[in-house]
Specification:
single chain; alpha/beta; 10 helices; 39% helix; globular; binds adenosine-5'-diphosphate; binds magnesium ion; ABC_transporter-like_ATP-bd
Length: 267
Amino acid sequence: MPSTTNERACAAAASQPMIEARGIHKTFGRVPVLRNVSLTVGQGEVVALIGPSGSGKSTFLRCLNHLETIDRGFIAIEGEALAQTDAAGNCTYVSEAEVRRICRKTGMVFQHFNLFPHLTVLENLIEAPMVVRGMARDEAIARAEVLLDKVGLRAKRDNYPARLSGGQKQRVAIARALAMEPDIMLFDEPTSALDPELTGEVLRTMRALAQERMTMLVVTHEMGFAREVAHTVAFMDQGELLETRPAAEFFGSPGHERSRAFLNHML
Ligand code: ADP
Ligand code: MG
């Protein structure tokens, strides 16, 4: 077993990438939001995607699971192409059915939880497995209970989201994403909407997932989490991915002037 963070990152990169994004371009109207962004995430790798507000982090994440389309570039999930671009610059996606199937390999957790407010915690967890995967209700419930144990919220199974704290809501959102058994978890600032005293419980849940070798791409402003849990840090600014490096190296000496300025501001 690789022991150091660095060795783990190298081992992860050597196997088939879980996420491969190459040369992604994306424009909103006439504003370029992603400019030639490339990132590879290996199996079991935890990548922290950091950078100033408005740099394109959320847009990039949303492109990976087709919540946004790209204008140009290549995206593959576990070796299966989602979108590709020919030499003439025409970008094409695979069929809708294929897009849905491929995107089911990723689960996403949003800043604002996005739980269904009219459903209980348990119902939030069983909805997609039953509707999308056709799972029997009993099985969906049994699995949901295991996941609620895992995030420490079994006791809240019959509560509505409005009765939960922000940290509890986010742990439910993580469990709900896991209920679809994704191979990759995408997190978009999962603690940014939380009071500081509630971020710890969410970060602990994420750390436990990382320890189970879940492949994770995490947009975060939590530099402590990035330093301790992520193998790799990717720094974005103004639509460009300026550096992607092992976390220890990045925090030891960021290679780009703008990464340095950002870190000085954050730490
Ligand atoms: P980050 O997550 O790093 O803060 P975003 O990906 O949310 O950055 O945004 C990158 C840029 O794209 C910003 O300038 C933002 O205003 C713009 N943007 C994001 N979503 C949209 C949209 N749906 N329509 C137009 N502009 C958008
Ligand atoms: Mg964002």
